[in-house]
Amino acid sequence: MNWSGGKDAAHALWRVMQSGEYEVVALLTTTNRETRLSTMHNLPTALLQAQSESIGIPLDLVELKPAGNLQDYTATMEKVLQKYQALGVTHFIYGDIFLHDIRKYRETTLAPYGITLVEPLWGPSSRDIIEAYLDTGLQTIIVTTEETGLGMGAIGKKIDREFIQSLPEHCDPNGENGEYHTFCYDGPIYQHPVAYHLGTPFRKSYDIPLDDGTEKTYTYCFADIQAP
Predict the structure, then answer these.
(1) What is the pTM of this model?
(2) Beta bridge mates, 114
C-alpha cells in the first residue's frame, strides 16, 4: 500500500480491507532525506509510525533526495520494486482517483517487475469519492494548503460535510488539484486513534521549473504537526 498518511490512502486501504482480496504487507511512504518528513503532506516519521502501529501493518520508509527530480525518484523506486518483486509482492495499491497521466506512469513503472496496479478509488467523480469517504467514518484534518487557495485558515480543519459544503465553487471537493492535503488519525482501519499535536502553522515557498524553461514560485501553508 502506497501510504501518504492522508484521507485518500486511508480510504483506499479501508476498501482493500473490506474486500479481503489482498494481503497488505507494508505501508510504503516516501520521505525527504533531510527533513525526515513525508513528501507533500509534510508528516513526521513518528506520526507515520504511529499510524502503522495502530493499523497493524509495517511501515516502509523510502528516503528521497531533497529537491530531487523525476530521475532520482524513478531510480529510487526501481530499487524498491526490485525488493518487493523478490519478496513475491504482486500488486501495488494507490489512492488515485482520475489522474490518467499518473496512472499511466504507475502502470509503465510497475509492469517490468510483474506488479499489477490496484486503484480502489478509481472511476467515480471527486464529489462521489468524498461522499463515500465521509461515510467510512475515517477522521482527517488538513495539514497542507496552497496559500492562494484555501490558505492558512483551513489548516487544522476537520474534513466533514460542513467543511466540504463550505468550499468555494472552483475548489475540487476531494482536493484533487492540490487544494489541500490531510492527516488521517482515526477510523475503522485503526485499532486506536493516533495522537497528535498541532503547533503554529507556517508558510514555505518553492521555485518550480515550468515546461517553457521559466520558474514560478508556489507558496504552501503547512501545519506544524507532531507526535505528542
Answers:
(1) 0.94
(2) none
In one-letter notation, the amino acid at residue 65 is K
Q: Chain centroid to CA 131: how far? A: 18
112: helix, strand or coil: helix
The position carrying cell 507556517 is 202
Radius of gyration of the chain from its Cα atoms, rounded to whole angstroms: 17
pLDDT of residue 17: 97
Instruction: Name the 3-class secondary structure at 37.
Output: strand
Buried/exposed code over 155-167 (b: 16+ C-beta within 10 A; e: otherwise): bebebeeebbeeb
**Grid coordinates of 73:** 525518484
Residue type, 144: T
| Other CB atoms within 10 Å distance of the CB of residue 46 | 13
How much is the average pLDDT of 214-220? 90
**Closest alpha carbon to 6 in 62, 61, 47:** 47
Per-residue pLDDT tens digits for 67-113: 667 778 888 999 999 999 999 999 999 999 988 888 999 999 999 99
What DSSP line would sit under 36-71, residue for residue?
A: -BBTTT--BHHHHHHHHHHHTS-EEEEEE-TT--HH
Grouping H, G, I as helix, E, B as strand and the rest as coil, residue 74 is helix
C-alpha cell at 177: 488539484
Q: Which of 216, 198, 209, 74 minimizes the C-alpha distance to 146?
A: 216
Instruction: Work out the pLDDT band at 65, boundaries 50, 70, 90.
Output: confident
Q: Give the start-to-end residue ranges of the domains of the chain.
A: 7-226
